[in-house]
Structure formats: C-alpha cells, structure tokens
Amino acid sequence: MMTMHLTRRDALLTGAAALTAAASLTPSHAAETDGLKSELLFDMTATLEPPQSIGATHEGNRSIFYATGGTVDGPKVKGTVLPGGGDWFRMRDDGVGELDVRATFKTDDGALIYTHYRGVLIPSTGYFRTTPRFETSAKQYQWLTKIVCVGVGTGGQGQVSYKVYQIL
Hints:
Layout: H1 8-25, E1 38-48, E2 52-57, E3 60-73, E4 78-81, E5 86-91, E6 97-107, E7 112-122, E8 127-130, E9 133-135, E10 148-156, E11 159-167
C-alpha cells in the first residue's frame, strides 16, 4: 500500500490552482461591485384554504396553509397554480415567521413546474421575502433550474402574492 504525504505547501498550491481554475470559468458579471441586478420573472397569486392551526409546539406556532389555485403571470412564464401545494408556516417566539412552501404550477403551454422555497415574514415590519427554486422536465423551462430568484410577498384575505425576481 502506497502512502502519500501532503505538505501544507502542497495543499495551499493545490487549493490556489483550483481557485484559479474556478475563477477562469466564472462569468465576468460575477465580479460586479455595484450591487445585485434583477428583473421581474413573474407575479404569482395563490388562493389559500383557512389554515390548519397545529398550535404552539417546541418549534414555535405551526400553521399549514394549503393552496387551492392561483395564477402565474410574467413576461417569460404564464400559468395556473395547481391545488395541493402549501406552506408549512412556523411563527417563532421572536415574532419571525418561517415559510416552507411547495407548489406546482402548469404553464399556458402545458408544462408542469414544481417550486419550493423557504422564506421569512416579519409581520411587525411587513418584511416578506422568499428564495424560490424550480424543477421541471420541460426542455423549454430548463433555464428556470439554473437561476437564483427572490420573491417579495404580501398576504391576507385568503391569498398570498409574490413578485418573483431573477437575480442576474
């Protein structure tokens, strides 16, 4: 059996070489220093059933909100939110709500897109942000699986709405 001895210098050189290689593959816009840029991907509104209130647990106050339908409307994606998704919402003791959402929508051209996201809601300030991710087998929407998004939400009256932005 052969034993390989790696010195600290070897490890540093190997790490530096890997970092240099990764940097050469990084698009030039990754080094922008003037802040993030975004563009509206779509507006999404979902109608909700009354919550199933689990109540105070060791994790916080848990409520489950099931979606009954809704719309997705944007310049590149349009469709319908399908029933059956929902938010396994938790209100922490410090007044911060944590979203844990899963939903499926069907595009106007028939593709199914699964979205899942975590988020934060602070009712006292109105801060409501999510980080949606997407999965689909539809070739024309594979680009959704390769982007980072942020949703800005509002809620009330049995529905929730988001403006979902692609981070460029």
